[in-house]
Specification:
single chain, 733 residues, Immunoglobulin-like, 6-stranded mixed beta sheet, 5-stranded antiparallel beta sheet, 47% strand
Amino acid sequence: MARAGGILAVLALAAATGVGPAAVSATASGSPDPTLPPGAVRQLGTIVATSSSSYADWDWANPDAAYAYKTADGNVGIVRHDDAVHTLTVDRYNNSTLERSGGTTSSWADWPVWGGFYAGPDGYFYVLVGRDNPDEDDNLDVVAVRRYDPSWTLVGTAYLKGSAAQGPKGIYKPFSAGAAHMVLVNGRLVVHTSREMYAIDGVHHQSNLTFEVDTQTMTAKTFAELATEFGGTPYSSHSFQQLVAMNGTSLITVDHGDAYPREIQLGVMADYPTSRTFALHDLMDFNGTVGSNFTGASVTDLISGPHGIVVLGNSIAQPDAPNGALGSREEHRNAFAISAATDGSHTRQWLTEFAPDGDTDASEVRAAQVGDDRYAVLLQVHSPTTESLEYRLIDSAGSILASASFPRVPYSTISQPLLVGTTLYWEGASVSDGDTPQTLYLYGLDVTDPAAPHMDARAPKPFTSTSAPTIEGTPQVGLTLTARPGAWEPAVDSFTYQWYADGDKIPGATSPTLTPTTDQEGAAVSVKAVGHKQGYSDVSVESPTTVPVAPGGDGEVPTVTVSPTLVKYGQTAYVTISGTPGATVDLYVRKYLGSFTKIRDGLVLDGDGTTVVATRPDMNLRFQAMDRTVGQGSSLDGADGLMTVQKNITLNVSRVGTGRYAFTGSISPLHPGATVSLFRNGSLLRSGIAVSGSKAYSVTATVPAGTYSFQVRTGSTGYNAASSSPLRSVRSY
């Protein structure tokens, strides 16, 4: 069934931007992108999705957050609506490569209430928008249906005024507490939606509203206006969902009723549009109080086929409905399928059978046609430890023909699944708090054989089992902690790590071990391990936290001295560490503008409390020793632990014009970011002269007449002024 919905907002046509979202799923090697969730075939951009389902908080339906449609050339169209900036983005993707092949962005701010989107079988697109009517103005255009041709050019708009009625009069707020759906029948677009009506005794009640648009003249009339006798509208109040489809020559509507009636109501208008009378049937009663705004159920899809219709949803247990006790929001739900004929006769079967007081839930249910009288039904099963995508193949009589389960593949019902070629696509996003954009992904199942679906080869597979890492060692300043990954199936290729203190990242702590310092003292430590395997989605799991890191033990904070402090390039120098006799220390070094790196592990100080390490530096170095017991390192102030390498600097001076001289030369060894400064008679003439990768520098300066002594010294970035060239005496003229 074609669906309409969206995030809540509105739009107006603008020029195509040509801006595309993220790259396709395959990596350079052709294997699936491991950064994608299991089952996803590409990233689509961002979207605000405040719920992972169309029913927010399990009460009433909302328009879908995203849409997919099949393009005229057999590819995939993706529609996203952004409520914050009132834009509709339409992107097109090649069905084989998933490369983006074009797109359009539309926007308008004068219709700020989003109703939904429908790709009609006529090749045109229909966008449903509205605006509130706080003054209850009968003559205000409150609902607009915009019709776009296949190139997304606006070709017409139909309007519905505030005076529209279905039973009680008026549209106070369009599309309120419901999700509009549309169907095109021989040039007539039937829109089944919701509204808050004009106030009755000061209260704006909610109900459904059904209207029809003549797509040739783009004029709209409600079914109440078109009815020839009483019964021309399928009235329901409150109506928390509005589904519509054709079954043969009968127009079918389905409403999720909360009050009058409190049931899933089936409306059948036989011989539409010749007949204008609805026959109404009760498909499922709900327990609880009339109009309580909670029925314990969702109604999320409608299948129409040669054997009748199938209504899909989920529900808590409804014992002895409508006269039994209604359960709570915390009660777990099961998915159902109600098979019905146009005369109202029906049967209900449960697609899942979880205990109401258990720990497993069935999500909302969606379906898409995948063959002649064959429909793929998708839902997600949740438990505290896992989730799985569940697949059922049914026919229009409701018979289950095949089943499949895809553990750890996520499924969020923010969009309607769609068959393009042999791939069943749907969009999904993680849940957002507030207005934080979330990444939208395109997922796919290969249904070449609908009875034996399998994951799309372009999608990364999920690990069948993962295990959080454990932390070995004593949480104490100066003592080493080690992350031990658990058992994974299948075995990972590699792990990466990140350590945390009280939930905050510890900078640079990305190895399997961590030696806490005084910065982590008193904090609870944890580690995240990310498992990597070719063809699989990366998975991050976090260890339990440790007890707070204890202070370091007693002992002397080590000191570091170097000899000599000024070293010629290639000369052997020595680093002496002094501290508590018998203490275990680690030696770290920081090269030019870098971070400290451990170069000696587990050095034990002798009976005099010292140890010596030889080195042959090629650049300036700063050394620091860390006592494992004390948990503190040697001082980094002043010249402590600083070893300066003297550079070999040449200087050549040549006259290039009257009073103009070129100063050239080289530095050895070169260090990244090196600069030099030019001095005249001991005073700075030019600083920040860059040294290229070939170790050469060059600068030209104007020099007044006279005799001068020039010298080049290393700049302040990375070198000591002790590195300088020989003096060059020049008489300027």
